[in-house]
Structure of Ferredoxin:
Amino acid sequence: MSRDRLQLDPIACDAHRLCAELLPERIGLDDWGYPLLADGGELPAELVAHARRAAAACPTLALRLRRRPAAREDRRSTTAQQQ
Ligand code: SF4
C-alpha cells in the first residue's frame, strides 16, 4: 500500500458517481449512488495516479487524496543516518 489514501467528505458528496467511474478498482457505490471506499481509502501504489485524477474530477471536492506522514521508524532511521 502507498502512503496516499482517499478520504471522502460524505456531507459534501452529491452522489455524482463520477469517482466510481474513474476508479472502479477502489470505489463502489451504495444503493443511493454514494461512494464506498475499499479498505477505508487505502491505495496500492499503482492506483495513486488514477485516484488523484478521480479526486481532481470530483465537482464538490468531497473526494480528497491525503498523504500519511512517514512512519516514526522511517524518520528515526533517516535521522540516525544523517548523524
Ligand atoms: S465524484 Fe465527488 S460528489 Fe460525485 S460521488 Fe464521487 S465523491 Fe461524491
